Amino acid sequence: MASTRLYVDSSVWNAAFDEHVPEMHALTHEFLNRLAVETWAEALVSDVVLQELAGAPKQRLEQLGQLLTRIAPTRLDFDEEAATLADAYIQHGVLSVGHLEDAKHVAVATVAEVDALVSWNYRHLVNRRRREAFNGVNAILGYRPIDIVSPPEVFDE
């Protein structure tokens, strides 16, 4: 049974099919391929991820569906507790209201007590300042800290 639970946000799933940045594309495939076979890690997604991916063009949607079937991530519900926490991130200025979807990813992952949120979103998620701000709000509200990392960082250890 997997002991490490990894919330994989939509930026990672989309990067699997975005060839505009070849290195990111290759690293994403390496990450997802390893995730598919590693027994110590479990992939998780939420309603938020699935809703974002549902907006993809038809061909991409079919590819995403095949990839999700191969990886078979566990689905987390974006519930009232996660919605309240996402709003708290906005109220505390961690992100602006225009980036509520990013706050939702962190909130659902935090509430589910995942080991790490995996993302390519360096601007709003994968950076020290934001991680500290999210975890500051988490501490105020009684949640444990969350680690937010890029795909290559997962297997660096």
Describe what is shown at a glance.
With 157 residues, this protein is α/β, with parallel strands linked by helices. The protein is 55% helix and 13% strand.
What is the class in the CATH system?
A: Alpha Beta
Low-confidence stretches: none
Task: Give, in spatial order, the strands making up the sheet with the most strands.
Answer: 3-2-1-4-5
Number of helices: 8
Residue share in helices? 40-55%
State the major sheet: 5 strands, parallel
Q: What is the CATH T-level topology?
A: Rossmann fold
Shape: globular
What average pLDDT do the residues reach?
Answer: 94
CATH superfamily: 5'-nuclease
Give the termini distance in whole angstroms. Answer: 19 Å
Q: Quickly count the domains.
A: 1
Question: Secondary-structure element sequence?
Answer: EHHEHHEHHEHEH
Rg, alpha carbons:
15 Å
Number of strands: 5
Second-tier CATH architecture: 3-Layer(aba) Sandwich
Beta-strand percentage range: 5-15%
Structural class: alpha/beta
